[in-house]
Amino acid sequence: MDPVVKTLLLAALAFVVTIAWTPALTRLLYKYRIGKSIRLTADAPVYASLHAHKQGTPTMGGLLVWVTVFAFAVLFAAADAFGIPGIRELDFLSRHETLLPLGALVAAAIVGFGDDLLNVLRVGPNGGGLTMRHRLAIYAIIAAVGAWWFIAKLEWTTLHVPFVGPADLGVIGFWFFAFAFLIAVAFSVNEADGLDGLAGGTLLTSFAAYGTIAFVQQRYDLAAFIAVTMGALLAFLWFNIPPARFFMGDTGAMALGTALGVIALLLGEPLLLLVIGLPFVVESLSVLVQATAKRFLGRKIFRSTPFHHHLEAIGWPEPKIVMRAWVISAVTAVLGLVIFLAGR
Fold this sequence. Notes:
Elements: H1 3-31, H2 45-50, H3 63-81, H4 99-120, H5 132-152, E1 158-161, E2 165-168, H6 170-192, H7 198-216, H8 220-240, H9 250-266, H10 273-276, H11 278-296, H12 307-313, H13 318-342
Antiparallel strand pairs: 1-2
Helix pairs in contact: 1-3, 1-8, 3-4, 3-8, 3-9, 4-5, 4-9, 5-6, 5-9, 6-9, 6-11, 7-8, 7-9, 7-13
């Protein structure tokens, strides 16, 4: 099957299938009141006051994305193994291109699901699930395994520096870079998941940019994997735009952030994510700047963090913040592609 036809067909199928099983998940979430618990802390009074009305909104909507991607990968791989005509051609699971991002997606999703469950049950500090320290520890474990896989299984130690060329970091250097990079990406995406449609829309453009890069590099299985992810993510976004029917939850944010980081490394273009994923960079930097200022200056720089909460605090309505973030992410995704193509 032609790679373009296969990729577009998989994206469309993923969208349709995800839309089709969304009502079943929605009924389950509402029936058992699997709702978001807003963490009430003295450190984040602005956030608590702005989002008090979202208390109890169903979470774990990220299941729509990663379960669909996993099901597609298993189904079409099985069809290929059994030689089922008409379906086997849609198989996109391969050791060198998609096994690692799929494994990272599912592993992070399961961990995120556990965190969401703790939040729903009001377990943990202030009834909000895992603390940021615990989340970073989990990110570190997943990142360590992912970095090891690149070196031990894929023998991968190189990344591309735009306008410079390939840079071989060696085994130790690449492990530490991949380790830090995956933690940073997962953390940044998780921080962006704070407004209806914000993380979903910005992730969509980032995946689209890396899907284009995968196609240019003729990594067609990886492009197909990204297409399935985008199709499922677009269906999730249909129900997540303001006001959201349900939230992505950590089971979605952790999974998609980790998968995005792995894909960027697989394509040898992790540095481009600084441009392609600029909204994520801004969100995570705002948190780091705020924490540093409070610790060493004894004052806040922003009214609340991540940055989208600061914009809320100064009076921006939620849809305005989300729509402008989508516009910015689309522009930076295109800019990242321009840098990629110009640097080839």
